[in-house]
Amino acid sequence: MNELARVKPVEDLVRSQMTDGILRIALANPPANALSMAVMTALQAALDAAREDDAVRVIVIAGEGKVFCAGHDLKEMTAHRTDPDKGREWFEDTFAACSRLMQSISAHPKPVIAEVAGIATAAGCQLVAACDLAIASEHARFGVNGIDVGLFCHTPAVALSRNVSRKHAMDMLLTGDLIDARTAESYGLVGQVVPQDELTRFVMKRAQVIAKKSPLAVRMGKKSFYEQVGLDLADAYDVTSRAIVENMLAHDAEEGISAFFGKRKPEWNGK
After folding, report:
1. Cβ–Cβ < 8 Å for 125, 142
2. What is the pTM of this model?
3. 125-153: b or e for each residue (b if 16 or more CB lie within 10 Å)?
4. What is the pLDDT confidence band of residue 8, given thresholds at 50, 70 and 90?
5. Could you say which of 66, 73, 224, 252 would form a disulfide bridge with 214 (CB–CB 3.0 to 4.6 Å)?
């Protein structure tokens, strides 16, 4: 069997399943679930499709097997060192695709939750940090260990340093050490740590809570959150003040407040 015959079709590299408005996307290329170009393409396609699908309220990204995601596919990248340009074009394309993928998560109108059952390293840890929420099992481990092979995790540092303190981020980046789930929780990299056998159920319950909220309020809230978080105090209040006025004028806010006073469940229309 030749090398090409052993490669999974792109559509099999991630598995998507919809349940009550929750789209669960599982990286399905174990054992490493590495972010090869094909995997990133498949994941990007799934996220892009969900943008326009009103049935999708929340997205969960998980990994099949014992590893959530081990980062970029070093075998794939090393193979391109024999290219005439020593792999420069392939490396540029790979990291551009990865940067687009990570940014598309924060820019996505739907909340994205990382469900981390196993190890998340390098760009896999970056993927966790890029998600809006992250929930890990007690067996999960996290690291940005490119430094161990002479490669500082430059791009993972972007998402990491926006989740944890600079001192913690630099410690992880410079040592390459793995941290356990409880440490990741104390750093702020994940929000909750739960027993392994309860992880998926817990994630789905949290996703269901969000899925029942006004899709308009969730969409507007996520957008304004990321717009304001990098601004100074005055500009942040300017952005969010405009956002809350527009939110207040929307049908869903009028309906939600009316339902509150009427002691009934609101009926959202996302407008």
Report:
1. yes
2. 0.93
3. bbbbbbbbbbbbbebbbbbbbbbeeeeeb
4. low
5. 252
